[in-house]
Amino acid sequence: MAGGLIGKGTANGKQYPGKLTFRVFVTCMVAAFGGLIFGYDLGISGGVTSMDPFLKKFFPDVYAKEMNMKPSDNQYCRFDSQILTLFTSSLYLAALVASLCASSITRIFGRRLTMLSGGILFLAGAGFNAFAQKVWMLIVGRMLLGFGIGCANQSVPIYVSEVAPYKYRGALNMMFQLAITIGIFVANVLNYFFAKMKNGEGWHYSLGFAAVPAVMIIIGAIFLPDSPSSLIERGKDEKAKQELIKIRGTSDVDEEFKDLVEASQSSMAVKHPWATLLKRHYRPQLVMAIAIPFFQQLTGMNVITFYAPVLFRTIGFGSNASLMSSMITGGFNALATFVSIFTVDKVGRRKLFLEGGAQMFICQIVITAAIASKFGVDGNPGMLPIWYAFFVVGFICIYVMGFAWSWGPLGWLVPSEIFPLEVRSAAQSINVSVNMIFTFAIAQVFTSMLCHMKFGLFIFFACFVLVMSGFIYKFLPETKGVPIEEMSVVWQNHSYWKKFVKSASEEANAKVDNSC
Ligand code: BGC
């Protein structure tokens, strides 16, 4: 899924010939549409659920509660409705199911067909949502979008990693996260403008606009060829070689082609990647495949991504100001991602993780104090001064930037570079699934948590940020500049993981055992 760019790197210092051809460039554009689709969905629902005409039509109870709200009422519970959050969260449950199925479709029918199915499902979902008349149509629409995202996110990053020249893989991985943040930002901007439509029909456009990236990905998938690795996997070696010549822009591809065939054979020799992954010497990879996406979601970032407008309304902003503020936080999210793109290969992963964690922690404490001081436990703030709004939005922006150059992109990059080929597909599926489960959970329980935990909600996430920073400090070795094939060395040299990971010769023996 997002960012699962996986590849060979410089195998034993090998340099394959080939340049960044137009064909590869077009492929990356399609990948960007995959990221945009995901980001657009992450960013759109919060704004739509804060539009009064939308609430009135689909969630009249929430709307009535909202209308009858007096300043002296408990503001924390203003949007507490399980059916309202289901509108947001259902998508991620569907994406989870789809990404599990999509891993087989990707293997058997190729990456392209999976992308095409993703685009079609997504288009259908956008249509259902844009013309929805009843809540069930909204939920069905969201589920179709989720199936689409599951397919696209499983296939697009793998496809890109397979066609991109190895030199550009790291950067392309981060481009995918950048596309996600741009998708979120575009959704925030469109919500802001569509909410202003006098006839109250803006939500149709917000939801229907998702059709645009869907059409792009469909067109892309129709015209793009399948990746050489996928063709080899399906026994079409000659076609694979021709394709490799085209995408590399040179006929000097023999060495890369030979390596692709070998890689495919050795990964096919591992009959049970799931069982293999459970073996003791893959423990660091298994732990990271679960812990990294889990912690990424427990930063609390998606409370902002999904519910910034709801949150801003809860703390006293008007509908317009709420949408404007989430547009600002969305903009900071996209811009700050560049910091990661430009620094990740220089300062390394660990420093970014730790700095981002410290920044998020401090902001969460400040935001908690700000909300606690005005809203207390009864959720009744009285009149809020204007400086207060600037103060809260400012700290939310600093928090978002901390995430955008640490756990956002690295939450996808690090897992994708630490999985060895023989367990890559299984580990990547776990990574994606854990991410989707917790994205779903946060989306589903946020309004209820806010209602019950009040300002303590931010302390809850702050505690997790502390734990995850400790985890990175103690357990994650630096992977900057380490070729993927040599990654096992970082575990062998690590003070804790070395007892799990065998030396290279022992590992080679283990692989032989596996293939028997
Ligand atoms: C995360 C999403 C999040 C987004 C925010 C991604 O890396 O997986 O859950 O909404 O970043 O920019």
UniProtKB/TrEMBL annotation:
It is found in: Membrane. SUPFAM superfamilies: MFS general substrate transporter (SSF103473). The chain crosses the membrane at residues 20-40, 83-101, 113-132, 172-193, 205-224, 286-310, 322-344, 356-375, 387-408, 429-449, 455-476. Keywords: Membrane, Sugar transport, Symport, Transmembrane, Transmembrane helix, Transport. Residues 27-480 form the Major facilitator superfamily (MFS) profile domain. It is a multi-pass membrane protein. One of its GO terms (molecular function) is symporter activity. Its main location: membrane. It holds the Pfam family Sugar_tr. InterPro entries: MFS_dom, MFS_STP/MST-like_plant, MFS_sugar_transport-like, MFS_trans_sf, STP/PLT_plant, Sugar/inositol_transpt, Sugar_transporter_CS. GO terms for cellular component: membrane. The keyword Transmembrane applies. Belongs to the major facilitator superfamily. Sugar transporter (TC 2.A.1.1) family. NCBIfam families: SP. This is Major facilitator superfamily (MFS) profile domain-containing protein.
